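Problem 3 from the worked examples.
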Amino acid sequence: MKKYGVLNRLETISSAMFIPVIIIVWWWYGAKNGTLNTNLIAGPDELKKCFTDMWQDGSLQRYLLASTGRVLKGFAIGSSLGFIVGTLDGLLPPVRKLLAAVIGILRPIPPISLIPFLILWMGIGESSKLTIIAIGAFWAVLLNTIQGFQETDPKLLELAKAFGKSKIEILFRIILPSAIPSVFTGLRLGISHAWTAVVTAEMIAASSGVGYMIQIARELVRPDMLLLGIICIACIGLIIDLVMTLILKKIVYWRA
């Protein structure tokens, strides 16, 4: 059984890596034979040199740490508020009725569209960026938390009431365990949205971070720095998603 499990895992990994490997090979070959315009898309040699220079002078680490710190702070604020409001909405029908119209009106507004307003209101400091990140995380956690509480099996609730279980016991032994998978799905989506939001906010108004790095690369016409910034965004986003998936599997162990 272990042999088949390892083979299936290797097959899954090889299938997932097929298209990325093709793209990398095409990129490398095109840069070497001149079919790829390196003035628009940096080749492997230029990218390697840019990475080495920025890593040695410490600028790349500063950009990455600035963005990561903002994401963690904004995500902590947004996800906490999303979980609290989602729990109240999911458990209390009066709150659900009160918030239904507000959620329906505000949810479709993209966080990015609020950046000019927040800059006017809060300035270009950290407050406006953290607010955008918090909003990006808030909606994903809120909606998935509400969904998790609403998906509790009614038969389990009826059975618990028939056995005379108290409301506290029903909450902690039935409702919360049923909602946890959706809550963590919301957290996974929320931190991805937070990472997207911080990069966008930094491109518009910042003096540090990966988004600021991309903006500087555009102004200096540095395709190597621009490509490095995009790769950093992709890699950090992938790492965040993998970490959240592993945490989800460990905590919600009863779900496949």
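Problem 4, a separate protein:
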Amino acid sequence: MAGARRVVIWRHGQTAYNRGGRIQGSSDIPLDDVGLGQAAAAAEQLALLAPAAIVSSDLSRARATAQALADLVGLEVATDPRLRERQYGLWEGLAVADLAGRWPAEYDRWRAGEDIPEIGMESRAAAAARVAQAVLEAAAAAPDDSLIVVATHGGCSVCGITALLELDAQAWLGLRVMRNAHWAVLEGGGRRRPVWRLVGYDLGDVAGRPGMTPWF
């Protein structure tokens, strides 16, 4: 196939909002000290894959994660706002633990897998479409048979990967969110649909936060 054959989709390192269980969405929250260490540790592993290009969300937590790799491999980081996390409207900045008390019905719907447009939440379908398109364009622009790295966010990466697998991102909830600074690998070029296949998920040996952290 023309362009990149493999795409690494890399979740950013930890932020204070991740650590505190707060919804960050499209808010620009930087990496904390643990997140910076996670990004550096993951970058050492990803550098071994010899990426041909690095593309990142323009939010600072993803951009700083991508830069840790760029510094090792001598590449520039291209930014694309389509790789930003989903928007969560009125909920951004709030602790997830507080939502059940303030928005009990909406919280229950959200936990059941629904979007909540009335609080300004972006739909999974909309996030999936923009992320998948950004990934496809980055892959198409890369050298043939190469590997690229896409630094992005927990929730929107699930949506984008689901769309690249040609599944309905609004209805199919089969992927859990990757841990901070971990990554997925998609491979393209097969003769059967979908064109892109998931060959690795939640990969990495990243010190500093062995368990799950909130992705919001």
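Solution to problem 4. The beta strands are 6-11, 53-56, 77-79, 147-152, 183-188, 196-203. Confidence is low (pLDDT under 50) at residues 208-216.
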